Give the backbone structure.
Amino acid sequence: MATSARRGPYFCGIDAAMDVVAGKWKCLILWELHNYGTRRFGELRRGLPGVSEKMLIQHLREMEEDGLVHREVYREVPPKVEYSLTEHGVSLNAALALLGPWGTERMRRIGAEKVSVDVAATVRR
Amino acid sequence: MATSARRGPYFCGIDAAMDVVAGKWKCLILWELHNYGTRRFGELRRGLPGVSEKMLIQHLREMEEDGLVHREVYREVPPKVEYSLTEHGVSLNAALALLGPWGTERMRRIGAEKVSVDVAATVRR
DNA sequence: TCAGGTACCCACCTGAAGGTAAGTAGGCAT
DNA sequence: ATGCCTACTTACCTTCAGGTGGGTACCTGA
């Protein structure tokens, strides 16, 4: 299920780590929060072109439950909620970081496209 | 699809790397091949308790297509096929390695079980 | 002669991941 | 008074990853 993952039994540490980043947007959310430090819900949504509100919330909730993300609610109108990485989120992101260069190199090899602002605009409409 | 993944457009390198390891057993296959260097189909199947033959083949084929795995066929009877990591597979595994300690730490935190030989035997039957 | 081992292929099915589109609350600007 | 902004929630629907259970070819040993 997406709402509550397996939480083991795991074959090894990598297996356990992959479990919490399994989800179409989780790595991107991690990355986005790492880059900006703190982001509001709407900022995240706009920063991840193509994501649906449902999936974004679902993923954020799971990541909060997994202790990766901190959620700060400001009781205002209009509502304001800020998301940021916890200590565990930061360390996971650091562990994930090595995949970046590898993936970039792979994109170069196979000539894969990158999601551009244009694509983003297209997707969003 | 499982048979031919998205191959972009990607948001970033991590996204591209995650794409090739997306699949229930891919990380484990990578790890298994890393540990043993070379493994036959049946050895892999027995080494990953719970995997179905269909998924194992499907994943191996995709990983071969992605240039992570090398497939060596020996024209004998009974058939013999050996799998091993390519250069790209090795480097990906190295990039993935950092996730190991993180996941192990997480397993300790949440008290997750590890797949044991007993579980393996149970699953296999 | 018949089960057993190898490395597969194929068709069918289910469950869950993710998408779509609507609704909610309260205040603000037009 | 109507619509817009926020951050959601809910219901419904589609898609597809993965599981199940069969079949294949060929040889070996009992």
In short: The longest helix of chain B spans residues 53-65. The interface with chain A takes residues 7-21, 27-28, 31, 48, 67, 88, 91-92, 94-107, 109-110, 112-116, 119 of chain B (CB under 8 Å). Residues 1-2, 23-24, 52, 54-55, 58, 77-79 of chain B lie near DNA strand D (CB under 10 Å from a C1').
